[in-house]
């Protein structure tokens, strides 16, 4: 009997276990950028190139394969973006280019979509770079992503085994292009504020845009949301240690701390600090400590949450599901109480009937 119960338990556990997610254990090739003479910073491993307007240049990446089989590598070129965590991404993704992005790196760098590295051998990936004819005051940033090619047969084979490769390891080599090394004063603007979701959880999404062709480093944001005309802060968030890529949007999420969205008109205010440094003239008070920054922006935007939007997002929020259907549990509780009452009444009536019948027989 114990053996049967153990087998049943193991079978149930197997059914409840999600598909295994495999993350590549190692790369079958190596990549290294050949830094040219016009490299601005010599002590980095990425390309940081200064070129004249309209100039053309071929950059080189050394590829090495130490395995016994030929390796085919997919090559991707992308302009730098900023994700919701305030982290710069250099690989292709679904983040839409900002309206202020005048020069998209992928339009100025040409490379083969795939390249083969012979077994136990080396090869060179050539990148043909063309600097815009127009003046570029600042930086154009992006990256070269190198990922081992996976055929359809390999992908299907992995799926057939119940495996899912979500993140194959890859090399990402940064590429920064500039015509001048003169610093550019950064500038931010707040485009929109609206209710949204991150991982099926309600947030207020504030879409910031770095409208200048320069990185904004060591960024901190103190944000709050209140109802229009009220002083009480409903939602508050503080975050630091972020970075914004040149000419990119940044959808900064303000979490609701498990609260449901309520329809109405609200005011979002963001205190944004950029380029933290010991000699910064702007002070940010955080608890009992003070931080110094070179830049500071106060950004405010009014926004509205409609009744339809609030209901729709609240229904999808996984943290609110237990409260979204409270009436179902209340109804079940009422039904359970009624059933108990009916059963008790039936027991009492049956006892009385039985007692009455016994008295008659006597």
UniProtKB/TrEMBL annotation:
Transmembrane stretches, start-end: 326-350
Domain WxL Interacting Protein host binding: residue ranges: 161-315
Protein name (database record): DUF916 and DUF3324 domain-containing protein
Protein keywords: Membrane, Signal, Transmembrane, Transmembrane helix
Domain WxL Interacting Protein peptidoglycan binding: 29-148
Pfam (any one): WxLIP_HBD
InterPro entries named among the record's database cross-references: WxLIP_HBD, WxLIP_PGBD
Signal peptide extent: 1-22
